[in-house]
């Protein structure tokens, strides 16, 4: 693909616009494509830009990450992927919400065009020492704490703008586009949720676990998209803020500060949304944190999140923070912790290497049949892991309304 005439034309046009945006002399700038990779619905290209700093007379380099919608997506049949909305949200984030002095990659250039023509050019922050987590799926405690602290700052930024600049904040919220949680027959995510989510309960039933518990949980999880996901993403005041929407290890980079402490950086804001903190917290704690660590350190982890949230608000000049209390955050988690469990039910087989999605197979045999074929990838080992997550949610009080 990268050798095609269409791609060469595209990258030449994009790089020309980037060079112009940076105010560089096009005749004295060279660029080189280092590598390309595809992620779900996005193509990512790593480019190095070489130019001369005229004021210092020095040769300089700028490493750039180019993101564009995947061009060869195949026929998705009746289903909508809404990849145009994903780029809309991320461009909106960088152009209206993120500030240059904050802990995000610098946006060098962005253009929102037709669904397949949008592009985002970001600073390659690996040159600043940031990297993906060295642990493939589960991270140790110092990484977990770094992530929840960063989530705390992220949510705090939303609360601060909501309190101090409400008109600007709600203008941004009004411009967000829904990517995943839309209730139509075209949403493949709905079918995937409802097929995968009951897996842990089915395992518990096979193990002879309490029938009443299994019956009540299966009734909810068999319709998880409507009964859990759609309900939890709805804004609920006063705790709703801007949430990342997809806090997985693939969307977090890590660096080390001068004092040796690990610092996290959030990337990929395609699923940015206005919801309550549990959306991000439960997703990360089920996808990025081992069961035993989450059980043993849950309150410490939640306290680290809230301490950072409170610190951000006070530094921003928000003093009426009682509504964002630690107790309110815990209650929000109890209300919606099942959200992250459903996410884990869908993705853990992929993260653990039991299942590698193949788009062509999905297109050939159809979504429902394909998902059912892979529902139990990972066997009883993964089933037990998911069941342990569910039982921990029960112990935390997250299932109280369902089980009563």
UniProtKB/TrEMBL annotation:
Q: Where is the CHK kinase-like domain?
A: 120-315
Where exactly are the transmembrane stretches of this chain?
336-355
Q: Which UniProt keywords apply?
A: Membrane, Transmembrane, Transmembrane helix
Please give the Pfam families that the UniProt record associates with this protein: EcKL (PF02958)
Is Coiled coil a UniProt keyword of this protein? no
InterPro entries named among the record's database cross-references: CHK_kinase-like (IPR015897), EcKL (IPR004119), Kinase-like_dom_sf (IPR011009)
| Protein name listed in UniProt | Uncharacterized protein LOC105429712
């Amino acid at each position: 693909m990268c050798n095609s005439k269409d791609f060469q034309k595209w990258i030449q046009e994009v790089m020309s616009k980037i060079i112009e945006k940076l105010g560089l002399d096009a005749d004295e700038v060279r660029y080189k494509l280092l590598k390309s990779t595809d992620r779900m619905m996005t193509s990512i290209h790593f480019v190095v830009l070489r130019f001369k700093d005229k004021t210092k007379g020095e040769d300089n380099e700028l490493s750039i990450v180019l993101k564009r919608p995947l061009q060869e997506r195949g026929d998705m049949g009746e289903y909508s992927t809404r990849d145009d909305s994903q780029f809309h949200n991320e461009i909106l984030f960088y152009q209206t919400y993120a500030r240059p002095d904050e802990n995000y990659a610098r946006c060098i250039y962005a253009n929102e065009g037709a669904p397949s023509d949008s592009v985002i050019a970001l600073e390659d922050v690996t040159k600043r020492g940031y990297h993906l987590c060295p642990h493939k799926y589960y991270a140790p405690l110092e990484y977990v704490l770094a992530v929840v602290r960063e989530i705390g700052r992220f949510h705090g930024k939303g609360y601060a703008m909501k309190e101090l600049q409400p008109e600007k904040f709600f203008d941004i919220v009004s411009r967000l586009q829904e990517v995943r949680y839309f209730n139509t027959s075209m949403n493949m995510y709905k079918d995937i949720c409802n097929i995968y989510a009951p897996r842990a309960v089915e395992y518990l039933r096979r193990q002879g676990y309490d029938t009443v518990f299994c019956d009540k949980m299966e009734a909810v999880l068999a319709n998880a998209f409507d009964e859990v996901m759609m309900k939890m993403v709805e804004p609920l005041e006063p705790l709703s803020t801007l949430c990342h929407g997809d806090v997985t290890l693939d969307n977090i980079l890590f660096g080390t500060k001068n004092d040796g402490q690990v610092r996290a950086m959030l990337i990929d804001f395609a699923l940015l949304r206005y919801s309550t903190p549990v959306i991000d917290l439960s997703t990360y704690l089920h996808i990025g944190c081992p069961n035993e660590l989450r059980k043993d350190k849950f309150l410490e982890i939640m306290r680290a999140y809230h301490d950072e949230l409170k610190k951000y608000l006070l530094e921003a000049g928000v003093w009426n923070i009682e509504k964002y209390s630690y107790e309110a955050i815990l209650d929000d988690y109890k209300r919606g912790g099942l959200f992250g469990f459903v996410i884990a039910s869908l993705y853990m087989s992929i993260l653990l290497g039991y299942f590698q999605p193949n788009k062509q197979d999905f297109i050939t045999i159809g979504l429902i049949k394909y998902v059912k074929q892979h529902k139990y990838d990972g066997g009883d080992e993964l089933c037990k892991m998911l069941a342990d997550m569910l039982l921990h949610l029960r112990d935390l009080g997250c299932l109280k309304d369902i089980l009563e």
